[in-house]
Amino acid sequence: MTEPRPTTGRITRAALRALIVTTCVLLVGLVGCGGLPPVDDTGGGGTVVVLAVEAETSIPLAVATTVTVGGVGGELRPSDQQLVLRDVPIGTGTPPTQPLTATAAGYVTATQQVQMQVTAATWVTVALTPADPATTGTVGGTVMDAESGQPVVNAFVRFAAPGGDDDAMVGGYTANDGTFRIGGIPKGERAVTVQAEGYLGLSSTTTIVADDAGQNADLAFELVGGDTAVDVTGAVVDVLTRLPIAGAQVTVGAVGPVQTDAAGRFAAPDVSVGDQTATAAAAGYEDLTTVLRILPGMGDVTLELFESASDPPAGPFTISGTVTLNGAPDNSGATVTAVSLTTGSVLDEDETSASGEYRLFVPPGRYELTVVFGTRSISREVTVPPGGVIVSGINFVLTVQ
After folding, report:
1. Phi, then psi, of 212 in degrees rounded to 5
2. What is the assigned CATH class of domain 13-33+310-399?
3. Torsion angle of the four alpha carbons 94, 84, 112, 245, in this order, in degrees rounded to the nearest 10
């Protein structure tokens, strides 16, 4: 089932200014940038552009790669520069994420969580590690609902050593039709677990034949409805310095609070799968409340805290910069929009002057700034933390002809 996109709403600039004056202050912080194509969201989802490379060399793979993001799948052929997946569910977390699985012959299947962009295409590069066909095998199969017979999307299928050695774990997520294909599984007896939101977990064992020795039979799993839980691990860090924060109190869903160790790491056991509210608090830092999409096999999460501050913003705007429109008579008429990556809401927008200047007024947080002129657009992410300094110099260059 396709997940709904986050609702988009606007608040007045006056109301936003009042909110910021009473709650926050600013310091410059830039996360990343890059040109992104506009999204065709007529299908209610987002566009994901995928590149597949070899982990050690970063060279594009010379074999076809099957990629699934949020249940939407496609094949990236060696002759293609990239794979474009459309109508991928945006997700409901903050920020919204979807699981990615990439499988290619001769490589270990790779999984990762993709942070979905709200107003532009999402670009992601997945790196695969070569697998030895003499010692590893490939298995395909299906995961279905035991009662209805319908496919289960985004189920995580995991193959591990019978003793539970995580270093030997290989897994992947199912596509919209409930199918999976996982490569690079060490040969011999493997413990198999299948987990999905809204279902009880399932465990069994199977014997893997190496790719050089033959082909493994497809596996078929049926899941029974119910609640499943997974362990959630991660770290709490300073958003600017990226240094770990020891002694932070972390709660995930109904689990916690648990305390981070000297390396800033935490472990929350038995967290229910699905969207869960997470909080983090530490002395000298602003409290954090966010929503995490808990999935089996999701890997570590990172919670970022801003240092505490009490100064009000220094002016009538908190982000400023210029837009250069190459090919246009001047730089006027481009629309610059700030979308919160936490809520998906448009918090402010402005139109550039002839000199290309724009100004936005938003509270601290992480934003996607998108410039649109005609059919052309470009986006970049900006972090606005507390601190009392206006985020300036966020400049764009857009070729319009």
Report:
1. -70, -20
2. mainly beta
3. -40
Residue type, 88: V
Q: Considering only the top CATH level, what class is 136-223?
A: mainly beta
pTM over 0.70: no
Helix (H, G, I), strand (E, B) or coil at 37: coil
Residue 201 identity:
G
CATH class of 229-305: mainly beta
Neighbours of 287 (CB within 10 A): 12
Q: Of 318, 324, 401, 382, whose CA–CA distance to 25 is shortest?
A: 318
Residue 144 pairs in a beta bridge with 151, 222
Residue range(s) in the chain whose domain bears CATH number 2.60.40.1120:
42-130, 136-223, 229-305
pLDDT, tens digit (0-9, with 9 covering 90-100), for 168-221:
789 999 999 999 999 999 999 999 999 998 898 889 999 999 999 999 999 999
The CATH superfamily holding the domain 42-130 is Carboxypeptidase-like, regulatory domain (2.60.40.1120)
Torsions phi, psi for 54 (to 5 deg): -80, 135
